[in-house]
Amino acid sequence: MHEFGIKYFDTVAVANALAVFRSGFLFCGAEFGNHQLYQLENLGDEGDEAEYLAVEERDDDDDDDEMNQDEEQEAEFQPRSLSSLTLVGELDSLCPFVGGMINNLAQEDTPQMYGLCGRGGGSSLKVIRHGLEVTEMAVSELPGNAKAVWTIKKRIEDEYDSYIVVSFLDATLVLLIGEEVEEVLDSGFISDTPTLGVQLLADNGMLQVTPHALRHIKADGRVNEWQPPPGREIIATTSNSRQVVIALNRGDVILFELDGDLGILSEWGEKLNIGCDVVCLAIPEIQEGRTRALVMAIGCNDQTARLVSIDPNKDLDILGTLALSDMPDSLCLSHVGHTVNELYMFVGLRNGIMQRTALDPATYEMTDTRTRFLGTKPVKLFPMMASQGRQCVLALSTRPWISYKHSGQHRLDPLSYDMLEFAAGFRSEQISEGVVAISENSLRIITVDRLDAQINTVSMPLSYTPRGFVLHSKYKKFVVIESEHGIIGNTEDFAQHYSALPPSQFGYVRNGDGCWASCIRVLDPFTGNSDHILELEDNEAAFSVALVKFYHSNSEIDDHVLVVGTGVDVTLKPRTCKSAYLRVYTFSQTEDGQLVLELLHKTQTAHVPQCLVEFQGQLLAAVGNSLIMYDLGRKQLLRKAHLGGLPTLLTRIVVAPTRHRYAYSKTSDSVKPVFSNRLVVSDVSESVHYVVYSPSAHQFFVVCDDVVPRYITALTFLDRDTVAVSDKFGTFAVLRLPDDLRKQLDRAPAANTDSSTHMALHQILINIMNKKATFQNPRRRLAAAVPSNIGGFGAVGAIQSASSSYALSFEAPYKFELIAQSSIGGSDIITHMVSLPSWPYAFKKLSDYDLSATTDFAAMSGGVDQHHDYNAIDYDYVDAKHLQHSSASASGSSQYPNGTAVAPHSTSSSTAPKAPVLIYFTLLGQIGAMIPLTNKHTDVEFFQTLEMHLRSSTSSHLFSKLGNSHITYKSRVSPVKNIIDGSLCELYSNLPLKIHRSASIFYDEHADENPYADDSSYCLKTEIASSLDRSVGDVIKKLEDIRALHIF
Asked: Where in the cell is the protein located (predicted)?
């Protein structure tokens, strides 16, 4: 080939990979943001775009070279909207994840995660929920509050449902499914009584069970009716295509079976009397090749569930009894998944707990019972058909859940939808596998889109790359700051251009370095609309934001104000700016309820403020390598305290939690907020520093720092003395204050007791002087700037410098102790971390709880206070839709379960949650959790042993994504310490049943020592379980329980 032509085709997002399918589709694996799937409409031959030829260079003579150079020309084109491609689908991606927050603004059972994602015109604020994504197909109002709903076909061979039967308190409504759903009166169902059950029988007859009759409506319209004895009524029923079971009051259970020859439902001669009232019944579907089911389940009001044989060759024998913690509300017998040999009994209790028990296929013995808390309302269970003909069970409580099998593992995940009261399967020409459900007085038809994506997102578009956001809890609205470098913003001159070529697809017009476009946005997370967008002018860009309530200010403003750190003409290399400001905004609400910003004043700073937080009822700003505390003034912010001389550039500030949020003041006879006097600041390249503030002296003291120069990307407190950090090399670490320093700091409570705090700091300063400080250390220069009119270092004889801002340069007197560390893997970086008392309580602040009992990760992991023994287990969650096209993390795979359920906890504020968890987010869109292990014998040793076996050479080749050495993978930068890979442990469930004995590492190859020497294969699962002194089922149950207790 000597030449080829190039021609403008269409414009898509910047992609890491492109794939063209023979079916005429183009997949674009975006570098950042969502991935797109396009359909090729044409090959671009129809347009009038110019074509440019590229010719192979030839070295014949200089004249030819000159001629080729003359013919060279630049290829120019004008971007336009899509003409050759049509967007047909998108895969959500959280990459890049810039910042996050966890809260429960929607007042749901579990909190929502809010993330700033994307860059440029493709940026967005995403609402991330744990749950399967649901599409609402139709909603219809009913004449009253319905009690139950069913769907039924006209004939067994029909593919789609024909009727929807809705039962009310005293009536029944039958709806015909067609192009429109409409009521029918000639269906054969009686409408003046409630219905307990509906079933299509094998003879194409329809069954209606009411409290006073069992009605068999035959295909030709004839009706056979069975009525209970006088004074008795039907209180529960269950059925399949050939068998019907009803329960009468006072404990009688009667079985009917369809007689194929006579075409009637024949009553069994034998009745079963339980001896107590029956609450619910269940019978499984008839397996292919059989004529009847052989077992049924009965739930009784004596808090038991009984399994009864209905084999005609045997009596109605009770095969087993399951004791329950509360009265059952519903039962379900289902072959979950594709395997018909696996039968499970699901029991929904009135206290919101669901139990799943496996039944032996031959003896129906009850084994392996699992318990999950689903909500505060009674659990109702319904068998369903999922995609690809897989059976599943829908459980309804305060939110809907679905139990199913995926990749050979049981999963129990919530649906991201409203609370439902009753449900049934639904199939039509438009909906292959759906659900028709009742919610109060409405009838709803929904579909579950995907069973392999347990996390769903809702996106709200932004204009530029997000830099940070805060939540105004009073108005429940976000304030987002956005800044973009090297572009021309959406100004009036370019408004027409951007309207024709949306930046979300085409990006912005590029400009030179040092040019910025920035805005401040007030965003309503419920509607996705922006109440107010404030564009910054004169090349000013926003870099930090905080919501502050100034408690000590004499200003008339008693509400929160917004403080934004900005810079003008900022250059990134070298890091300079023409000027920098702290802008203070107040909030006001318009008549239509929109929240708008009003500029109060702005204060100039020496450098761009990189981080802002509320501290001691004032504003604390990280300006360059200094900490500056401001109070609110009438015309500008007033400087109150200053700490200078920190190493390079401060990037993050985190305030330590307090034991109590409020304290009673005897002097003023009122309740006042308790302010923390401790904080941790991170340097861009010199790890973290523990800082203590003395309110009486208005001084900051750096009392502890790290020995490793980490490039910090995220940090959070686990308790007042322990901090979790991550760096840009993907290392996660837990650091803790040394015992000596902790004891001294504990003398000063985190309250407004200045004298005791100052005494503790005074003693620390004495220790500083007793330690030989290392002066002029170029790598670490820590200082405490002391105003000339304030004591401090001078009070204890410290050397003061009068010629510079450094009062003293030295290393901190104490060093953090490394408690745990590990690499998160996949060349990923943690960008945000949140420490929570418990996942269900994530929307509450940490200070709402007694942190000494709930979030002290170190104390809950085997006695860190005494033995410095910290252990944690690391779970990775990945948005499965994003992961399918990203192999960034070997420990996060779509085959891993994203959880089962949330264990029950007391919601009383006086009861401390007992399942703390650390949630983290990564740059590539991964969501993970760190769980503290509470028992060294039952938890730490178990998971360490399991991890050791799965790391072995026997198992490592089964997990190709982990490479040959898992310990090397998790110790890519620093040796792993006291952190167990939970995602690796969960791969135990995916181990094959048999492996060749040559892979054995547990025994030698000699026949007299290896019991498997005479066998070509053996069960690796069983071998690992034996080394743990457990069965295979117990190991899997332990893995599921530890996840369900702490996380989703």
From this structure: Nucleus
Q: Which of 645, 670, 688 is where one domain is finished?
A: 645
Identify which of 579-593, 652-666, 839-853 has the greatest average pLDDT. 579-593
Tell me the C-alpha to C-alpha distance, in Å, between residue 635 and each of 375, 586, 632: 52, 14, 9
Per-residue pLDDT tens digits for 232-286: 999 999 999 999 999 998 888 999 999 877 878 888 878 888 888 999 999 999 8
Counting residues of the chain whose pLDDT is more than 70, the rounded percentage is 78
Residue 1012 is assigned to a structural domain of this protein? yes
Residue 903 has pLDDT above 50, yes or no: no
Q: How far is residue 1041 from each of residues 267, 288, 930, 931, measured CA to CA in Å?
A: 44, 34, 15, 12
Angle at 76 between CA 70 and CA 80, to 5 degrees: 165
> Where do we find the tokens 């409405």?
442
Residue 132: DSSP 8-state: B
Given this model, what pLDDT does residue 401 score?
Answer: 95
Q: What separation in angstroms does the CA of 343 have from each of 271, 288, 337?
A: 25, 14, 10
State the residue for tokens 């500008």. 636
Tokens of 26: 């183009």
* Residue corresponding to tokens 């929240």: 595
CB neighbours of 252 closer than 8 A, spacing ≥ 6? 232, 271, 272, 273
Q: Is residue 723 part of a domain?
A: no
Higher-confidence position of 330 and 75? 330
Q: How far apart (Å, rounded) are the C-alpha atoms in residues 105 and 88?
A: 32
The rounded percent of the chain whose pLDDT value lies above 90 is 47
Peptide bond between residue 913 and the one before it cis (omega within 30 degrees of 0): no
> Which of 392, 438, 447 is CA-nearest to residue 419?
438
CATH of residue 626's domain is 2.130.10.10
Query: What is the number of other CB atoms lying within 10 angstroms of the CB of residue 530?
Result: 19
Cβ–Cβ < 8 Å for 758, 767: no
Please check whether residue 369 lies inside any domain of the structure.
no
Mean pLDDT, rounded, of the chain: 81
- pLDDT top residue among 885 and 628: 628
Query: What angle, 0 to 180 degrees and rounded to 10, lies between the N-to-C axes of helices 1020-1027 and 941-951?
Result: 150
> Total structural domains in the chain?
3
What whole-number distance in Å separates Cα of residue 257 and Cα of residue 172?
25
Q: Which backbone phi and psi does 176 adopt, to 5 degrees?
A: -90, 130
Residue 534 scores a pLDDT above 80: yes
Dihedral sign of CA atoms 1016, 1021, 1022, 1025 in order: positive
- Give the residue among 322, 346, 471, 481 at the shortest CA–CA distance from 403: 346
pTM: 0.84
* More confident position, 675 or 471: 471
DSSP 8-state assignment for residue 695: T
- Write the pLDDT tens digit of every residue in 763-775: 665 665 465 344 3
Domain that holds residue 38: 3-91
CA–CA separation, 259 vs 203, rounded Å? 9
The verdict on residue 869 lying in a domain is yes
Q: Of 91, 109, 132, which residue constitutes the final position of a domain?
A: 91
Assess contact for 819 and 722: CB atoms under 8 A.
yes
Q: What is the 3-state secondary structure (H, E, C) of 214-257?
A: EEEECCCCCEEEECCCCCCCEEEEEECCCEEEEEECCCEEEEEE
- Token pair in block for residue 311: 């084999």
Mean pLDDT in residue range 922-935: 89
Distances (CA, A) of 25 to 15, 19, 315: 16, 8, 61
DSSP codes joined into one string, 548-610? E--SS--SS--S-EEEEEEEES-BTTTTB-SEEEEEEEEEEE-TTS-EEEEEEEEEEESS-EE
Segment 712-728 shows an average pLDDT of 95
Average pLDDT in the 782-807 region? 32
